[in-house]
Amino acid sequence: MYSMRYLGLLMLLTLASLLTYGQQSVVIYYNGTVVAHLNNVSTFHVIGDNITDLRVIGSKFNLTGGYLFFYNTSRVTVIYVASFPKGVIQGTEPYNVTFNVIVPGTYTFAYIYPPPTSLETRGNLYNLTLQGSSLEVLYSTSSQSSSGFGKEDLIILVVVLVTDAVVGFFLYEYFRSRRRPVTEQVNQNQQMSQAQASQTVEEDEKEEEAELTTQELNDRDIMVLESFKRGARTLSDAVRDTGLPKSTVYRRIKKLVKLGYLVERREGGKIWYEVSQPPPDKPT
Fold it and tell me: What are the transmembrane regions (predicted)?
């Protein structure tokens, strides 16, 4: 026969399981009772020492080295009773868990990690909710302790955490809004630089096209012609020899062929060039 206290405990555990349905949740009661609701995990690190009254619902299992290994991983509930060092509740898991630590309202807390995400008071019990892969709660059973903090301090802690989150969000939005004009200005500058570079290239190409239509040889024409006189035979040879861009060398070769300084040869899909013999009667 359950006493009223244990009936209240079962109600709290049921509520916690409903609130955390679909994720890993572990409820730890101050007297050592532990209830874990697990979904799609194959292991559970047993929290506490001297495990008794172990029950696993939903799967066959194997207990080895402080770990429960499950054969079925869809939905598993683990219930047992453990012992904890006086004033200390600790536990670790290989995955994130929602921990619910239930202690009497007369307890005072000296240390809580991670910071609680919520605090509920039901009757004379506290329900601390913590989220993470581990937890550590240090408490005292003396309601007159001069150190630590109680219910009011814990409520203040939760409020401070929520306030920090809200303030952090607004600060993030503020600085992001300030960065936006700077980013837009950088993008505009980049677009202007690209436009100027494109305009410069177009102007150079127009100037070069104008030079290609003249009968006179400029410095680049002569550089390309001299490379063929030194033994270059192909476009690639002339590019390596002169160091000029491939497109520039190609256009100069076409001009030299047009003016008769070079002769284009083709054989088997290959193209090469030879210096005209004799060269045209034009100054070089």
Answer: 154-175
Q: What is the pLDDT of residues 13-25, one digit of tens each?
A: 445 444 444 589 9
The CATH number covering residue 268 comes to 1.10.10.10
pTM of this structure: 0.47
Residue 128 near residue 136 (C-beta atoms within 8 A): no
- CB-based contact 275:229 (threshold 8 Å): yes
Q: Are 40 and 52 in contact (CB under 8 A)?
A: no
Total count of domains within the chain? 2
DSSP letter at 31 equals: T
Structural domain harbouring 41: 4-149
Q: What 3-state class would DSSP assign to 2? A: coil
Q: Could you tell me the CATH number of the domain that includes residue 121? A: 2.60.40
Task: Spell out, as residue ranges, where the chain has pLDDT lower than 50.
Answer: 1-3, 6-7, 9-10, 13-14, 16-21, 143-146, 284
Sign of the C-alpha dihedral computed for residues 265, 271, 276 and 281 taken in this order: positive
